[in-house]
Amino acid sequence: MKDIFNNHEIVFASTNDKENYMLSKEKKEGNLIKIAPRIYTTNPNDSAENIIRRNLFRILGFLFPNSILSHRSAFECRPTDSGDIFLTYKYSKNITLPGVKVHLIKGSGPIEGDYPFLDGMYVSGTARSYLENLQRSNGHSIISKTLQQNVIEEKLEIMLRTGGETALNKLRDEAKVIAPKLGMKAEYDKLNKLIGALLNTNSKDIITSPIVEARILGEPYDNNRLDLFLTLMKALNDKTFNDILEPNKSHTEFSNFAFFESYFSNYIEGTEFELDDAKQIVDSKTPLPARNADSHDILGTFDICSNKQEMEIIPSSFDDFIKILQRRHSIMLSARPNAHPGEFKTRNNRAGQTHFVEYTLVRGTLKKGFEVYGAVRHPFAKAIFMLFLISEVHPFEDGNGRISRIMMNSEMVHSEQAKIIIPTVFRPDYLGALRQISRYSNPEVLIKALMRVREFSANIQGTFNEMKDYIESCNGFKDDEDYILRF
Question: Is the pTM of this model over 0.70?
Protein backbone atom coordinates (compact mmCIF):
# COMPACT_ATOMS: atom_id res chain seq x y z
CA MET A 1 0.00 0.00 0.00
CA LYS A 2 2.72 2.48 0.98
CA ASP A 3 4.69 1.75 -2.18
CA ILE A 4 1.63 2.03 -4.40
CA PHE A 5 0.57 5.43 -3.12
CA ASN A 6 4.02 6.83 -2.30
CA ASN A 7 3.19 7.52 1.35
CA HIS A 8 0.79 10.31 0.34
CA GLU A 9 -1.87 11.28 2.82
CA ILE A 10 -4.33 11.75 -0.02
CA VAL A 11 -4.95 9.63 -3.12
CA PHE A 12 -6.86 10.65 -6.21
CA ALA A 13 -9.15 8.58 -8.40
CA SER A 14 -7.53 7.62 -11.70
CA THR A 15 -8.61 7.05 -15.29
CA ASN A 16 -6.19 4.12 -15.41
CA ASP A 17 -8.07 0.83 -14.97
CA LYS A 18 -5.22 -0.92 -13.18
CA GLU A 19 -4.74 1.93 -10.71
CA ASN A 20 -8.46 2.16 -10.10
CA TYR A 21 -8.61 -1.57 -9.40
CA MET A 22 -5.87 -1.25 -6.77
CA LEU A 23 -7.58 1.81 -5.31
CA SER A 24 -10.88 -0.07 -5.06
CA LYS A 25 -9.14 -3.02 -3.43
CA GLU A 26 -7.42 -0.83 -0.84
CA LYS A 27 -10.71 0.89 -0.09
CA LYS A 28 -12.47 -2.44 0.55
CA GLU A 29 -9.65 -3.51 2.86
CA GLY A 30 -10.06 -0.29 4.86
CA ASN A 31 -6.73 1.21 3.84
CA LEU A 32 -8.38 4.09 2.01
CA ILE A 33 -11.20 6.34 3.16
CA LYS A 34 -13.20 8.52 0.78
CA ILE A 35 -13.35 12.12 2.04
CA ALA A 36 -14.69 13.88 -1.08
CA PRO A 37 -15.61 12.96 -4.67
CA ARG A 38 -12.53 11.36 -6.32
CA ILE A 39 -10.43 12.03 -3.19
CA TYR A 40 -9.29 9.42 -0.66
CA THR A 41 -7.03 9.44 2.35
CA THR A 42 -4.67 6.93 3.95
CA ASN A 43 -5.08 8.72 7.30
CA PRO A 44 -7.88 7.22 9.42
CA ASN A 45 -7.04 9.28 12.50
CA ASP A 46 -7.69 12.86 11.42
CA SER A 47 -10.81 14.68 10.27
CA ALA A 48 -11.61 15.14 6.60
CA GLU A 49 -11.59 18.92 7.16
CA ASN A 50 -8.02 18.92 8.47
CA ILE A 51 -6.78 16.59 5.75
CA ILE A 52 -8.38 18.71 3.01
CA ARG A 53 -6.90 21.91 4.46
CA ARG A 54 -3.40 20.41 4.69
CA ASN A 55 -3.47 19.18 1.11
CA LEU A 56 -5.69 21.88 -0.36
CA PHE A 57 -3.57 23.06 -3.26
CA ARG A 58 -2.74 19.52 -4.41
CA ILE A 59 -6.47 18.83 -4.40
CA LEU A 60 -7.35 22.02 -6.27
CA GLY A 61 -4.67 21.33 -8.86
CA PHE A 62 -6.08 17.84 -9.40
CA LEU A 63 -9.73 18.90 -9.56
CA PHE A 64 -9.24 22.12 -11.55
CA PRO A 65 -6.10 21.91 -13.73
CA ASN A 66 -4.78 25.24 -15.03
CA SER A 67 -6.99 27.13 -12.61
CA ILE A 68 -5.74 30.42 -11.19
CA LEU A 69 -5.70 31.37 -7.52
CA SER A 70 -7.30 34.77 -8.04
CA HIS A 71 -9.08 37.79 -6.61
CA ARG A 72 -8.63 38.05 -2.80
CA SER A 73 -7.12 34.55 -2.68
CA ALA A 74 -4.22 35.73 -4.87
CA PHE A 75 -3.21 38.08 -2.05
CA GLU A 76 -4.16 35.86 0.87
CA CYS A 77 -2.96 32.49 -0.54
CA ARG A 78 -5.25 30.61 1.84
CA PRO A 79 -8.96 30.16 2.50
CA THR A 80 -10.76 32.92 4.38
CA ASP A 81 -11.68 32.41 8.02
CA SER A 82 -15.02 31.06 6.79
CA GLY A 83 -13.27 28.56 4.49
CA ASP A 84 -13.85 30.30 1.14
CA ILE A 85 -11.27 30.27 -1.64
CA PHE A 86 -11.52 31.79 -5.12
CA LEU A 87 -10.23 30.38 -8.41
CA THR A 88 -10.54 31.70 -11.95
CA TYR A 89 -11.50 28.78 -14.19
CA LYS A 90 -13.25 27.90 -17.47
CA TYR A 91 -16.70 28.03 -15.87
CA SER A 92 -18.40 29.40 -12.76
CA LYS A 93 -19.53 27.10 -9.97
CA ASN A 94 -19.43 26.75 -6.19
CA ILE A 95 -18.11 23.43 -4.90
CA THR A 96 -18.12 22.36 -1.28
CA LEU A 97 -15.35 20.19 0.14
CA PRO A 98 -15.03 19.29 3.83
CA GLY A 99 -14.05 22.55 5.52
CA VAL A 100 -13.61 24.49 2.27
CA LYS A 101 -15.93 26.15 -0.22
CA VAL A 102 -14.34 26.58 -3.66
CA HIS A 103 -15.70 29.48 -5.73
CA LEU A 104 -14.93 28.99 -9.42
CA ILE A 105 -15.16 32.25 -11.39
CA LYS A 106 -15.31 32.07 -15.18
CA GLY A 107 -12.50 34.10 -16.67
CA SER A 108 -9.40 34.24 -18.80
CA GLY A 109 -6.81 31.50 -18.33
CA PRO A 110 -3.18 32.15 -17.41
CA ILE A 111 -1.63 35.17 -19.14
CA GLU A 112 1.82 36.72 -19.10
CA GLY A 113 2.65 37.82 -15.57
CA ASP A 114 0.73 35.05 -13.80
CA TYR A 115 2.85 32.79 -11.61
CA PRO A 116 3.04 28.98 -11.95
CA PHE A 117 1.96 27.44 -8.66
CA LEU A 118 1.59 23.94 -7.21
CA ASP A 119 0.35 20.93 -9.16
CA GLY A 120 -0.52 22.72 -12.38
CA MET A 121 -2.18 25.74 -10.77
CA TYR A 122 -1.32 29.42 -11.24
CA VAL A 123 -1.52 32.54 -9.09
CA SER A 124 -2.70 35.84 -10.56
CA GLY A 125 0.20 38.19 -11.25
CA THR A 126 0.49 41.41 -9.28
CA ALA A 127 -1.20 43.67 -11.83
CA ARG A 128 -3.95 41.13 -12.49
CA SER A 129 -4.57 40.72 -8.74
CA TYR A 130 -5.15 44.43 -8.29
CA LEU A 131 -7.53 44.58 -11.25
CA GLU A 132 -9.47 41.54 -10.01
CA ASN A 133 -9.86 43.03 -6.54
CA LEU A 134 -11.26 46.25 -7.98
CA GLN A 135 -14.11 44.35 -9.64
CA ARG A 136 -17.57 44.84 -8.23
CA SER A 137 -18.32 41.91 -5.99
CA ASN A 138 -21.68 40.14 -6.12
CA GLY A 139 -23.78 41.87 -3.49
CA HIS A 140 -25.70 38.64 -2.84
CA SER A 141 -22.62 36.68 -1.80
CA ILE A 142 -22.05 36.03 1.89
CA ILE A 143 -18.30 36.36 1.39
CA SER A 144 -16.80 38.82 -1.09
CA LYS A 145 -14.41 37.58 -3.74
CA THR A 146 -12.58 40.91 -3.48
CA LEU A 147 -10.75 42.65 -0.68
CA GLN A 148 -12.23 45.92 0.52
CA GLN A 149 -11.02 48.99 -1.32
CA ASN A 150 -9.28 50.44 1.75
CA VAL A 151 -7.19 47.24 1.97
CA ILE A 152 -6.17 47.61 -1.68
CA GLU A 153 -5.29 51.26 -1.07
CA GLU A 154 -3.10 50.29 1.88
CA LYS A 155 -1.29 47.67 -0.20
CA LEU A 156 -0.60 50.34 -2.81
CA GLU A 157 0.64 52.67 -0.07
CA ILE A 158 3.08 50.01 1.16
CA MET A 159 4.27 49.53 -2.43
CA LEU A 160 4.88 53.27 -2.70
CA ARG A 161 6.68 53.35 0.64
CA THR A 162 8.97 50.43 -0.16
CA GLY A 163 9.43 50.77 -3.92
CA GLY A 164 8.80 54.45 -4.52
CA GLU A 165 6.92 56.02 -7.42
CA THR A 166 8.72 53.70 -9.82
CA ALA A 167 6.96 50.66 -8.36
CA LEU A 168 3.49 52.22 -8.67
CA ASN A 169 4.13 53.43 -12.21
CA LYS A 170 5.38 49.96 -13.20
CA LEU A 171 2.22 48.39 -11.76
CA ARG A 172 0.05 50.89 -13.64
CA ASP A 173 1.86 50.23 -16.93
CA GLU A 174 1.50 46.45 -16.56
CA ALA A 175 -2.18 46.77 -15.67
CA LYS A 176 -2.80 48.94 -18.73
CA VAL A 177 -1.40 46.23 -21.00
CA ILE A 178 -3.38 43.31 -19.58
CA ALA A 179 -6.67 45.08 -18.81
CA PRO A 180 -8.04 44.72 -22.40
CA LYS A 181 -7.14 41.00 -22.43
CA LEU A 182 -9.12 40.48 -19.22
CA GLY A 183 -12.02 42.76 -20.12
CA MET A 184 -11.20 44.96 -17.13
CA LYS A 185 -11.01 48.49 -18.54
CA ALA A 186 -13.26 49.89 -15.78
CA GLU A 187 -11.06 48.27 -13.14
CA TYR A 188 -7.95 49.74 -14.77
CA ASP A 189 -9.52 53.21 -14.72
CA LYS A 190 -10.15 52.86 -11.00
CA LEU A 191 -6.62 51.60 -10.33
CA ASN A 192 -5.24 54.49 -12.35
CA LYS A 193 -7.19 56.98 -10.20
CA LEU A 194 -6.03 55.36 -6.94
CA ILE A 195 -2.39 55.48 -8.02
CA GLY A 196 -2.83 59.05 -9.20
CA ALA A 197 -4.24 60.02 -5.80
CA LEU A 198 -1.30 58.39 -4.03
CA LEU A 199 1.11 60.25 -6.30
CA ASN A 200 -0.82 63.50 -5.77
CA THR A 201 -1.72 63.84 -9.44
CA ASN A 202 -5.45 63.06 -9.20
CA SER A 203 -8.37 63.87 -6.93
CA LYS A 204 -8.06 62.39 -3.45
CA ASP A 205 -11.84 61.97 -3.08
CA ILE A 206 -11.59 58.36 -4.25
CA ILE A 207 -9.46 57.35 -1.21
CA THR A 208 -11.27 55.49 1.60
CA SER A 209 -8.36 54.37 3.86
CA PRO A 210 -7.37 56.77 6.68
CA ILE A 211 -3.81 55.41 6.44
CA VAL A 212 -3.52 56.31 2.77
CA GLU A 213 -5.26 59.63 3.34
CA ALA A 214 -2.66 60.42 6.00
CA ARG A 215 0.14 59.71 3.52
CA ILE A 216 -1.42 61.99 0.92
CA LEU A 217 -1.71 64.73 3.54
CA GLY A 218 1.97 64.27 4.33
CA GLU A 219 1.64 62.42 7.66
CA PRO A 220 1.77 58.68 6.95
CA TYR A 221 1.77 56.44 10.02
CA ASP A 222 2.33 52.83 11.05
CA ASN A 223 -1.13 51.30 11.45
CA ASN A 224 0.18 48.21 13.29
CA ARG A 225 1.72 50.45 15.94
CA LEU A 226 -1.53 52.39 16.24
CA ASP A 227 -3.24 49.08 17.04
CA LEU A 228 -0.67 48.48 19.80
CA PHE A 229 -1.24 51.96 21.24
CA LEU A 230 -5.00 51.37 21.31
CA THR A 231 -4.49 47.98 22.97
CA LEU A 232 -2.31 49.52 25.68
CA MET A 233 -4.70 52.44 26.22
CA LYS A 234 -7.65 50.10 26.74
CA ALA A 235 -5.68 47.89 29.15
CA LEU A 236 -4.56 50.93 31.17
CA ASN A 237 -8.01 52.47 31.36
CA ASP A 238 -9.48 49.16 32.50
CA LYS A 239 -7.34 49.31 35.65
CA THR A 240 -7.48 51.39 38.81
CA PHE A 241 -4.13 52.76 39.96
CA ASN A 242 -3.43 54.24 43.36
CA ASP A 243 -1.62 57.52 43.87
CA ILE A 244 1.93 57.36 45.26
CA LEU A 245 2.96 60.91 46.03
CA GLU A 246 6.54 62.12 45.55
CA PRO A 247 8.42 61.53 48.84
CA ASN A 248 11.53 63.54 47.87
CA LYS A 249 10.25 67.06 48.40
CA SER A 250 13.44 69.08 48.90
CA HIS A 251 15.73 70.15 46.10
CA THR A 252 18.54 67.97 47.51
CA GLU A 253 16.37 64.88 47.73
CA PHE A 254 14.99 65.43 44.24
CA SER A 255 18.55 65.84 42.93
CA ASN A 256 19.75 62.70 44.74
CA PHE A 257 16.99 60.66 43.15
CA ALA A 258 17.75 62.21 39.74
CA PHE A 259 21.33 60.97 40.02
CA PHE A 260 20.26 57.33 40.41
CA GLU A 261 17.59 57.83 37.76
CA SER A 262 20.26 59.02 35.31
CA TYR A 263 22.82 56.44 36.38
CA PHE A 264 20.53 53.46 35.85
CA SER A 265 18.93 54.83 32.68
CA ASN A 266 22.35 55.06 31.06
CA TYR A 267 23.56 51.75 32.49
CA ILE A 268 20.64 49.94 30.89
CA GLU A 269 21.70 51.32 27.50
CA GLY A 270 25.30 50.19 27.90
CA THR A 271 26.87 53.40 29.24
CA GLU A 272 28.31 51.73 32.32
CA PHE A 273 30.24 53.51 35.05
CA GLU A 274 31.28 52.61 38.56
CA LEU A 275 28.90 54.43 40.88
CA ASP A 276 31.68 56.56 42.42
CA ASP A 277 32.92 57.61 38.96
CA ALA A 278 29.41 58.61 37.90
CA LYS A 279 28.97 60.60 41.13
CA GLN A 280 32.26 62.41 40.51
CA ILE A 281 31.17 63.33 36.98
CA VAL A 282 27.86 64.76 38.19
CA ASP A 283 29.27 66.58 41.22
CA SER A 284 32.18 68.15 39.31
CA LYS A 285 30.29 68.65 36.04
CA THR A 286 33.51 67.39 34.46
CA PRO A 287 33.69 64.37 32.15
CA LEU A 288 36.28 61.66 32.65
CA PRO A 289 39.09 62.38 30.15
CA ALA A 290 39.05 58.87 28.65
CA ARG A 291 35.25 58.76 28.31
CA ASN A 292 34.13 62.22 27.28
CA ALA A 293 30.98 61.31 25.33
CA ASP A 294 29.85 58.69 27.84
CA SER A 295 30.36 61.16 30.68
CA HIS A 296 28.26 63.75 28.86
CA ASP A 297 25.49 61.16 28.46
CA ILE A 298 25.30 60.94 32.25
CA LEU A 299 25.51 64.72 32.61
CA GLY A 300 22.92 65.40 29.90
CA THR A 301 20.42 62.96 31.41
CA PHE A 302 21.03 64.34 34.90
CA ASP A 303 20.62 67.94 33.74
CA ILE A 304 17.07 67.15 32.64
CA CYS A 305 16.07 64.75 35.42
CA SER A 306 17.30 67.03 38.22
CA ASN A 307 15.55 70.12 36.83
CA LYS A 308 12.14 69.94 38.52
CA GLN A 309 10.80 72.90 36.57
CA GLU A 310 11.70 71.17 33.31
CA MET A 311 10.35 67.80 34.44
CA GLU A 312 7.01 69.33 35.38
CA ILE A 313 6.37 70.21 31.73
CA ILE A 314 4.09 67.84 29.82
CA PRO A 315 2.68 68.41 26.33
CA SER A 316 -0.70 70.03 25.82
CA SER A 317 -0.70 69.61 22.02
CA PHE A 318 1.08 67.49 19.43
CA ASP A 319 3.33 70.37 18.34
CA ASP A 320 4.17 70.95 21.99
CA PHE A 321 4.95 67.23 22.40
CA ILE A 322 7.41 67.29 19.49
CA LYS A 323 9.14 70.42 20.77
CA ILE A 324 9.55 68.98 24.28
CA LEU A 325 10.76 65.64 22.96
CA GLN A 326 13.33 67.12 20.58
CA ARG A 327 14.55 69.73 23.08
CA ARG A 328 15.20 67.16 25.79
CA HIS A 329 16.90 64.82 23.35
CA SER A 330 19.19 67.60 22.15
CA ILE A 331 20.23 68.32 25.75
CA MET A 332 20.72 64.67 26.61
CA LEU A 333 22.96 63.85 23.62
CA SER A 334 24.62 67.23 23.19
CA ALA A 335 28.09 65.63 23.18
CA ARG A 336 27.24 63.19 20.39
CA PRO A 337 26.84 65.22 17.17
CA ASN A 338 26.98 62.04 15.08
CA ALA A 339 23.72 60.93 16.74
CA HIS A 340 22.03 64.14 15.49
CA PRO A 341 20.68 65.27 18.87
CA GLY A 342 17.16 66.65 18.67
CA GLU A 343 16.60 65.39 15.11
CA PHE A 344 14.41 62.47 14.13
CA LYS A 345 16.13 59.52 12.47
CA THR A 346 16.73 59.52 8.73
CA ARG A 347 17.20 55.76 8.42
CA ASN A 348 15.50 52.74 9.94
CA ASN A 349 16.71 51.22 13.19
CA ARG A 350 16.23 47.96 15.03
CA ALA A 351 17.16 46.11 18.23
CA GLY A 352 17.72 42.38 17.76
CA GLN A 353 14.66 41.02 15.98
CA THR A 354 12.57 44.12 16.69
CA HIS A 355 12.26 46.55 13.79
CA PHE A 356 11.05 49.96 14.91
CA VAL A 357 8.83 52.37 13.01
CA GLU A 358 10.15 53.32 9.57
CA TYR A 359 11.78 56.73 9.56
CA THR A 360 9.28 58.09 7.00
CA LEU A 361 6.43 57.21 9.39
CA VAL A 362 7.88 58.59 12.63
CA ARG A 363 6.08 61.91 12.82
CA GLY A 364 2.72 60.53 11.69
CA THR A 365 2.94 57.58 14.10
CA LEU A 366 3.87 59.86 17.00
CA LYS A 367 0.89 62.04 16.12
CA LYS A 368 -1.52 59.09 16.14
CA GLY A 369 0.02 57.85 19.38
CA PHE A 370 -0.34 61.28 20.96
CA GLU A 371 -4.02 61.31 20.02
CA VAL A 372 -4.44 58.02 21.90
CA TYR A 373 -2.40 59.35 24.84
CA GLY A 374 -5.07 62.01 25.29
CA ALA A 375 -7.58 59.30 26.21
CA VAL A 376 -5.42 57.77 28.99
CA ARG A 377 -6.59 58.85 32.45
CA HIS A 378 -4.42 58.20 35.52
CA PRO A 379 -0.97 59.90 35.69
CA PHE A 380 0.79 56.56 36.17
CA ALA A 381 -1.11 55.14 33.19
CA LYS A 382 -0.13 58.17 31.09
CA ALA A 383 3.49 57.63 32.16
CA ILE A 384 3.41 54.00 31.00
CA PHE A 385 1.81 54.99 27.72
CA MET A 386 4.35 57.75 27.06
CA LEU A 387 7.21 55.35 27.79
CA PHE A 388 5.89 52.77 25.34
CA LEU A 389 4.95 55.30 22.65
CA ILE A 390 8.50 56.63 22.37
CA SER A 391 10.18 53.27 22.91
CA GLU A 392 8.08 51.62 20.21
CA VAL A 393 8.45 54.38 17.62
CA HIS A 394 12.19 54.83 18.37
CA PRO A 395 12.18 58.24 16.69
CA PHE A 396 15.89 59.02 17.12
CA GLU A 397 19.09 57.35 15.97
CA ASP A 398 20.25 56.94 19.58
CA GLY A 399 19.03 57.62 23.11
CA ASN A 400 15.47 56.38 22.58
CA GLY A 401 15.34 54.32 25.77
CA ARG A 402 16.66 57.15 27.90
CA ILE A 403 14.36 59.78 26.44
CA SER A 404 11.36 57.46 26.81
CA ARG A 405 12.07 57.10 30.53
CA ILE A 406 12.57 60.86 30.91
CA MET A 407 9.20 61.48 29.28
CA MET A 408 7.65 58.82 31.52
CA ASN A 409 8.93 60.45 34.68
CA SER A 410 7.93 63.89 33.46
CA GLU A 411 4.32 62.67 33.63
CA MET A 412 4.92 61.60 37.23
CA VAL A 413 6.57 64.87 38.31
CA HIS A 414 3.80 66.94 36.70
CA SER A 415 1.23 65.08 38.83
CA GLU A 416 3.42 65.12 41.97
CA GLN A 417 3.70 61.33 41.82
CA ALA A 418 6.79 59.36 42.84
CA LYS A 419 9.22 58.93 39.94
CA ILE A 420 10.29 55.55 38.59
CA ILE A 421 13.76 54.01 38.35
CA ILE A 422 14.59 50.88 36.35
CA PRO A 423 17.51 49.37 38.32
CA THR A 424 20.11 47.20 36.64
CA VAL A 425 18.82 43.98 38.18
CA PHE A 426 15.36 44.67 36.70
CA ARG A 427 16.65 45.27 33.17
CA PRO A 428 15.72 41.78 31.79
CA ASP A 429 12.19 42.05 33.24
CA TYR A 430 11.75 45.55 31.82
CA LEU A 431 13.00 44.77 28.31
CA GLY A 432 11.09 41.48 28.27
CA ALA A 433 7.91 43.32 29.19
CA LEU A 434 8.41 45.78 26.33
CA ARG A 435 8.91 42.86 23.93
CA GLN A 436 5.68 41.22 25.12
CA ILE A 437 3.58 44.11 23.95
CA SER A 438 5.70 44.99 20.94
CA ARG A 439 5.76 41.46 19.51
CA TYR A 440 2.69 39.80 21.00
CA SER A 441 0.27 42.68 21.74
CA ASN A 442 0.29 41.72 25.42
CA PRO A 443 0.31 44.86 27.60
CA GLU A 444 -0.28 43.13 30.92
CA VAL A 445 3.36 42.16 31.49
CA LEU A 446 4.55 45.74 31.00
CA ILE A 447 1.88 47.14 33.30
CA LYS A 448 2.68 44.64 36.06
CA ALA A 449 6.44 45.17 35.70
CA LEU A 450 6.14 48.95 36.02
CA MET A 451 3.71 48.64 38.94
CA ARG A 452 6.32 46.56 40.75
CA VAL A 453 9.25 48.84 40.00
CA ARG A 454 7.11 51.85 40.89
CA GLU A 455 6.65 50.50 44.44
CA PHE A 456 10.39 49.90 44.68
CA SER A 457 11.18 53.41 43.44
CA ALA A 458 8.78 55.09 45.87
CA ASN A 459 10.95 53.80 48.75
CA ILE A 460 14.11 55.45 47.40
CA GLN A 461 14.22 58.59 49.53
CA GLY A 462 16.35 60.65 51.84
CA THR A 463 20.07 61.34 51.63
CA PHE A 464 22.35 60.03 48.90
CA ASN A 465 23.71 57.27 51.13
CA GLU A 466 20.25 56.28 52.33
CA MET A 467 19.12 55.90 48.74
CA LYS A 468 22.24 53.97 47.83
CA ASP A 469 21.90 51.61 50.79
CA TYR A 470 18.27 50.91 50.06
CA ILE A 471 18.96 50.15 46.40
CA GLU A 472 21.80 47.83 47.41
CA SER A 473 19.54 46.02 49.87
CA CYS A 474 17.10 45.37 47.02
CA ASN A 475 19.86 43.99 44.69
CA GLY A 476 19.33 47.02 42.46
CA PHE A 477 22.96 47.29 41.34
CA LYS A 478 23.32 43.58 40.54
CA ASP A 479 24.02 42.72 36.91
CA ASP A 480 23.58 38.99 37.23
CA GLU A 481 20.67 36.74 36.28
CA ASP A 482 20.98 34.94 39.64
CA TYR A 483 19.54 38.01 41.41
CA ILE A 484 16.04 39.48 41.43
CA LEU A 485 14.68 42.80 42.63
CA ARG A 486 13.73 42.53 46.32
CA PHE A 487 12.14 45.21 48.47
Answer: no
